[in-house]
Specification:
This protein is an alpha/beta fold. The protein has 13 helices and eight strands. It has three domains: 60 residues, Nucleotidyltransferase, domain 5 (2-Layer Sandwich); 34 residues, no CATH class; 212 residues, Rossmann fold (3-Layer(aba) Sandwich), CATH 3.40.50.1240.
Length: 341
């Protein structure tokens, strides 16, 4: 709304609106209904402004490509709230919202969400996020990205325990769809889940196939693949320091965490859209699951290095059509008590 007002003041006749809120873009383009009562007055106001131009188009920009503009906008809003001048580069926002030093890189922000809370009026879309079971590389705490190791014997037992836990989470009779990374460690874990759900009355026989989603593949760690953290520290000390300092930094011959998140998050959003009001079990890897949790919690970059995810750990995120999100569970391993360690 503020952008459209500014464009009108400048005398613009044709406007292209670029936003990282897919919800707003789809609603203003007329493709999605506006169901949340708190958003309808704002939509009416925005539509009135749109009618004042010759043409207005709305285009969605992934969050990974919009971090700079988002940081500037939030710095201005924070400055307005505090009565001071806007700081460039998002420094004001870093201090006011999360206690981060202004010298830290501005994190990729999440899609704009309602600043108020009202009881949900629709069924939530539930994501059950499952990290794959143990492999030889994960057991030795080595970088494991695009390599394709099998589950260990313990990893197979973890996958079976996770499958039983997922079935228990669906004991209210709801069904579930299962999507997985194409890597074998994730596919094998997903297959165990599908086997248990297919045999469970709780799943209603609905979850009998695994949907393989290529975008859920683990981050590419490049030359660090198969190495321990200590080995990487010894051989690539400067590169490791840079990687730990910024999610935009790429390991040698690899992929940055930002780049991985930029492909995982749209894939997860597409699953949410395809199965609105249902449960989707997403079997994946540390980087992707952390990206989804960080997005849901609107957390900063340190979150990615401070959160630990165990093999076969389970997290749950609920979301609603109005943009509301609730993180219900993070890295639950209660089901692994009977698995030998």
């Amino acid at each position: 709304i503020a952008g459209l007002r500014a464009a009108a003041e400048l005398g613009a006749r044709s406007v292209e609106v670029l936003m990282d809120s897919k919800l707003v873009v789809e609603q203003m383009s007329g493709r999605w209904k506006i169901k949340h009562p708190g958003l309808r007055p704002l939509a009416v106001e925005a539509a009135g402004l749109v009618r004042g131009f010759d043409s207005v188009t709305f285009r969605w920009i992934p969050r990974a490509q919009n971090s700079r503009a988002d940081a500037l906008a939030n710095a201005a809003m924070d400055a307005a709230a505090s009565g001071g001048p806007a700081a460039s580069g998002g420094a004001t926002r870093g201090k006011a919202r999360a206690g981060r030093a202004s010298s830290e890189p501005v994190p990729l922000d999440t899609e704009a969400r309602p600043r108020h809370w009202t009881p949900p009026s629709h069924e939530a879309t539930r994501l059950i996020l499952v990290r794959h079971g143990e492999t030889a590389l994960s057991a030795e705490r080595r970088f494991s990205g695009r390599g394709d190791p099998e589950l260990t014997e313990r990893g197979q037992a973890q996958a079976l325990a996770a499958a039983a836990r997922v079935a228990a989470l669906l004991d209210d009779g709801g069904d579930a769809r299962v999507a997985t990374s194409p890597l074998r460690r994730a596919r094998r874990t997903a297959e165990e889940i599908v086997a248990v759900l297919g045999a469970s009355e709780a799943a209603g026989g609905a979850a009998r196939e695994v949907v393989v989603e290529p975008a859920l593949v683990e981050c590419d760690f490049g030359d660090w693949e198969g190495h321990s953290f200590g080995e990487v520290r010894d051989r690539w000390p400067d590169e490791l320091d840079a990687w730990l300092a910024s999610t935009a930094v790429t390991p040698p011959s690899g992929e940055s965490i930002d780049a991985a998140a930029a492909r995982v998050l749209p894939a997860v959003a597409a699953l949410r859209e395809a199965y609105q009001g249902k449960t989707v079990v997403v079997v994946g890897h540390v980087t992707g699951i952390k990206a989804v949790l960080r997005d849901a919690l609107d957390a900063g970059p340190r979150f990615l290095h401070q959160l630990h995810l165990d093999p076969a750990g389970i997290s749950i995120v609920d979301s609603w059509p109005d943009g509301g999100v609730s993180v219900r569970l993070v890295n639950d391993t209660s089901h692994l008590g009977g698995v030998a360690t």
